[in-house]
Amino acid sequence: MSRILPVIFACIAGPLIFSGNLAAQSDTPEPLKIGDVTVSGLVHERYEDWNFFRGAKGENDYGYSGSYLRLMFNEKTKTFDWAVEFAAPILLGIPNQAVQGSPLGQLGLGGAYYAANRNNTNAASVFLKQGYMRLKGAHSSLRLGRFEFTDGGEVTPKDETLAIVKRDGIAQRLIGTFGFSDVQRSVDGAQYTYSNGDWNVTAVSFVPDRGVFQVDGWGWVVTPVTYAAVTRQATWGRTTAEWRVFGIFYNDDRGVIKTDNRSTAAKAADHAGIDIGTYGGHFIQAIPTSAGTFDLLGWGVLQSGKWGALTQKSGAGAVEGGYQPPIKTLRPWIRGGYFYSSGDGNATDGTHGTFFAILPTPRVYARFPFFNEMNNVDAFGELMLRPAKRMTIRSDIHGLWLANRNDLWYSGGGAFQPWTFGFNGRPSNGARGLATLYDVSWDYQLTRGLGVGLYGAYARGGDVVQKIFPQDHNSKMGFVELNYRF
To answer: Are 88 and 78 in contact (CB under 8 A)?
Structure first.
């Protein structure tokens, strides 16, 4: 962490000292136009510093930089839209000893980038990030081509509280762009949307593209997904709410070895594919009162189908609540919640009971991404402060356990290249306690286009971690990032 402390200090001090002048700058720069075509883009730079749990060998203490450039051309008319966007990820200084054999595995995301890019310490590429046509009617649209999609992101509530609750607690739990990575995820397919008043119906079928950790994002990963959802906004007086019901079908016939708690021999002998249906919904509500604003969240799913030769029976659920007291200076927001996803209790029976996360963005729900939402219990408390319009400070405390001690400690965010399953697992050794996680983030929007973000986390490993990483079962991670949008 000492590698980025001077940078963090400079990034915090500068905006705080000059925030008065920056606030006076224009918030609405004119878009760049070439005729009827709008040109926009993103320049992203992040330096990450990892001190992962330390085992008997391997490089757990390292830093690397990731740059991400995006350039989009798009046109919008009354009857159709089109967009073409290119992305150029650049990775420098990836550690070359952060990938070890089981049970150590990949020692942080540096190891994931190294393994995904043919063991190169520097990697770069240019590929088509999006390229689509959207046909539009009075209430419906049809989008065809390559685009980004997130489950739960079909509708953005007008209420600010609901919009943030949905962004941080609903969207991308099962299908996401993997926005934290320096490559990210797109999909190739078709999306139909019908919106009329408070109602929205969305249906999408796609094949995910390569990316996430692999800088070459041109090709496909043949794991087709079909998603359908109905969402409705509701208002009762000053109270606003939203509900959604949805279904997802996921198929994977790639023949790669699945990550689960069976023996290596049993997994290697199972060449059958994965066919899983996921059915669920969510409900969110914001309740303004004279004593402040309260919010509620409920989300849950059940899964059935086939996990190779096994029968899939699993589920997951989350409940959260928050309170914003009427303090104008800091605009505090206190939240807490509980998440549970099933694990598999018997590696030798005919049932796979581990909740399957499909294609999520793990870091939305694991800000220090050494775990994900599979075989997971997460009880958390959160404090958010917004002392200025452009500044957000957030700190979380998470108690983390494995849901079932006979299952694995999982990480990863789903298929991202043809030859890699996409989820990793370490043995539990009969323990359940994973870690206690403490973190803090600071985000400041200097201008409409330029923002800076800082993050620091400390994880105190529990019994599961201690049995695999006895040399040091505590871990730290931090980063500083800059984002410029035009």
So the answer is: no
In sequence order, the β-bridge partners of residue 420 are 417
Give, in order, the Cα–Cα distances in Å from 238 to each of 159, 294, 326. 10, 12, 16
Per-residue pLDDT of the chain (486 residues; tens, 9 = 90+): 555 544 444 444 443 333 333 233 334 456 789 999 999 999 999 999 999 999 999 999 999 999 999 999 999 999 999 999 999 999 999 999 999 999 999 999 999 999 999 999 999 999 999 999 999 999 999 999 999 999 999 999 999 999 999 999 999 999 999 999 999 999 999 999 999 999 999 999 999 999 999 999 999 999 999 999 999 999 999 999 999 999 999 999 999 999 999 999 999 999 999 999 999 999 999 999 999 999 999 999 999 999 999 999 999 999 999 999 999 999 999 999 999 999 999 999 999 999 999 999 999 999 999 999 999 999 999 999 999 999 999 999 999 999 999 999 999 999 999 999 999 999 999 999 999 999 999 999 999 899 999 999 999 999 999 999 999 999 999 999 999 999
Distance CA 121, CA 35 (A): 42
DSSP letter for 158, please.
S
- Assigned architecture for domain 128-478: Beta Barrel (2.40)
**What's the token pair of residue 467?**
């049995």
The span from the CA of 38 to the CA of 292, in Å, is 41
- Residue boundaries of the structural domains of the chain: 128-478
* pTM summary value: 0.92
